[in-house]
Design brief:
Domain Glycosyltransferase RgtA/B/C/D-like: 58-192
Strand content: 5-15%
GO cellular component, one term: plasma membrane
Number of domains: 3
Keywords: Cell membrane, Glycosyltransferase, Membrane, Transferase, Transmembrane, Transmembrane helix
Strand order of the largest sheet: 6-5-7-9-8
Helix content: 55-70%
Transmembrane segments: 61-78, 85-102, 114-147, 154-170, 176-193, 214-233, 264-285, 297-315, 321-337, 357-385, 397-418
Radius of gyration: 26 Å
Protein name: Phospholipid carrier-dependent glycosyltransferase
């Protein structure tokens, strides 16, 4: 029955993959989709291209898989996002098996799998063409096989795990090797370091015991060496690609800090929604109440590992919150390691009283934004969660009356809040422009890439406001995202408003706009122009 439920929910989720406007977009996806489609158009299957040149930013695995599915199912968002969806199903399968292997409880395993399925991490990155979903899978895959190797005392598991890490290199370069190296370091640290009776002790015997595992990790270098050798020896631009990727794209990020480290910490809070409070609770219990049980040792390995990867990501200049996504899954595994039931975590005082407050916020937003469907469901959520809070402790309704509304927090945000407030569908605004030569005047080229992805039969170019005449001399249609002075031979044919990505408003201006319900303060006009006499 549980497998049927997961298949049903996954099928519903899969139906949203083909919608261009994702509820939780990520800018890099536009570039990834563009690279896949350009590579198919130019027949550059081995070495993906972007803007007519070899793509220097990321290795090719995600692009190869996107091209493969585009060939099978036809070029489209569904085919390309199916890559991350499949990695998501693989991650859920690994999570289920690992959680059950640790907890030995089918009920707890099912509850934990549902919580991870409905987390913000899963509902965002397993539906976008991004490397993050695949990185979650490969990181969990190695640690799952590492655990199986220890449980069965069979080194073949960790050998396969090490070899498969090499495929992870083809996603984002050597970063996965660094993650796994930090995990092995965390494991050795917990095994080697002891504090007994106030004395700091170091034992080197674990290092000897783990020597085969460490040596087998060398298998992870086979695929990277093969790919780097191919680029270096057999492609004309290989040396330049390698130099840009390793020096500019990777090492260059450690040159200087330009983003706050709070963004990384915010990622831990953001991508664990709506189970942030239960996961903070289990993390606190793991640190506070220690034991010598083998699962407690495993839990401490996970906490050290999460600390190390957090420190690592605080070092580069880029500190995007989604950098922590490959490790969120291990927070969801902590209850199994600590043998703490999800029922206790969900019904903890802080968590069960927070959920009605979340739904109260939904009610407030629905009134301010005039969203009647969100208002109705939010009001129902308040009634159910309050009823659950004040029911008898032994009543099963108390748990499910909190758990189910908590599961639905992110889907409700997607369906009843973000979807009604979404920008107009740009393909419907540009119906007459399909097949024409379009010039997009915007702040950055990704806007033009986005329109090109949506209008596959059109030729789309990017231009800055002052250079559109030189950049797009033969354009039949202009789409203006940024204010520009146009010549008299252009006629405005359509316009709409969309949400601003960057607000130049202070807090008092934002408050006044909210009180007046003036959404235009948060929006900018997009206009469409065609050649003709101005009227």
């Amino acid at each position: 029955m549980f497998i049927v439920l997961i298949i049903f929910l996954s099928a519903i989720f899969a139906t949203t993959l083909g919608i261009p406007d994702a509820s939780f977009p990520q800018g890099d996806e536009i570039m990834h989709i563009r690279s896949i489609r350009e590579s198919l158009e130019l027949g550059s299957y081995t070495l993906p291209v972007l803007s007519g040149l070899p793509n220097p930013y990321k290795p090719p695995l995600l692009f190869w898989m996107g091209m493969f599915f585009d060939k099978i199912f036809g070029v489209g968002y569904f085919s390309e996002r199916l890559v991350s969806f499949i990695f998501g199903l693989g991650t859920l399968t690994l999570f289920y098996k690992l959680y059950h292997s640790i907890s030995k409880s089918p009920k707890e395993t099912k509850l934990a799998t549902l919580t991870f399925f409905f987390s913000f991490l899963s509902l965002k990155f397993f539906g976008l063409l991004m490397m993050e979903g695949a990185m979650v899978f490969f990181t969990l895959l190695y640690i799952f096989l590492f655990y199986e190797s220890k449980r069965t005392k069979n080194l073949s598991y960790v050998a396969w795990g090490s070899f498969l890490v090499g495929f992870g290199y083809l996603l984002k370069g050597p970063i996965l090797h660094i993650y796994i190296g930090l995990f092995l370091l965390s494991y050795l640290y917990i095994q080697m370091i002891r504090v007994r009776k106030g004395k700091f002790l170091i034992s080197f015997s674990p290092l000897k015991n783990e020597k085969p595992t460490l040596l087998l990790f060398g298998l992870s270098l086979l695929i990277p060496i093969f790919w780097i050798s191919y680029l270096y020896l057999f492609t004309s631009s290989g040396k330049e690609l390698l130099r840009f990727f390793f020096i500019t794209e990777n090492m260059g990020k450690f040159y200087a800090a330009n983003q706050s480290g709070l963004r990384i910490w915010g990622g831990w809070l953001l991508y664990t929604i709506p189970f942030t409070i239960p996961l903070l609770h289990i993390g606190f219990l793991t640190i506070k109440n220690r034991s010598n049980h083998k699962n407690q040792i495993l839990a401490m390995v996970v906490l050290v590992f999460l600390s190390l990867v957090t420190i690592f990501h605080l070092m580069p200049n880029r500190k995007d919150p989604y950098y922590v996504t490959p490790f969120i899954v291990f927070l969801f595994l902590l209850p199994a390691m600590r043998r703490v039931s999800w029922e206790n975590l969900i019904l903890s005082k802080y968590n069960r009283y927070t959920i009605p407050l979340v739904y109260f916020v939904f009610v407030t937003l629905s009134i301010v934004l005039r969203l009647p469907v969100l208002f109705a469901f939010s009001l129902l959520g308040i009634l159910i969660t309050l009823g659950a809070n004040f029911s008898f402790p032994e009543n099963k309704f108390r748990f499910y009356g909190i758990f189910i509304p908590q599961l639905l927090v992110v889907p409700m945000t997607m369906i009843f809040l973000l979807r009604p407030m979404a920008d107009p569908d740009i393909t419907k605004q540009l119906i007459g422009a399909e097949g024409k030569e379009i010039c997009v005047i915007a702040e950055n080229p990704w806007t033009a890439m986005d329109i090109q992805n949506r209008l596959k039969d059109s030729k789309v170019s990017f231009a800055l406001p002052l250079t559109y005449q030189e950049t797009c001399p033969k354009a039949e249609t202009l789409v203006v995202f940024r204010e520009a002075t146009l010549s008299s031979d252009w006629k405005k044919v359509n316009s709409w408003f969309q949400w601003k990505q960057h607000l130049n408003l202070d807090s008092s201006q934002i408050l006044r706009a909210l009180l007046k319900m003036d959404k235009r303060s948060f929006q900018s006009e997009v206009s469409v122009w065609e050649r003709g006499e101005n009227q």
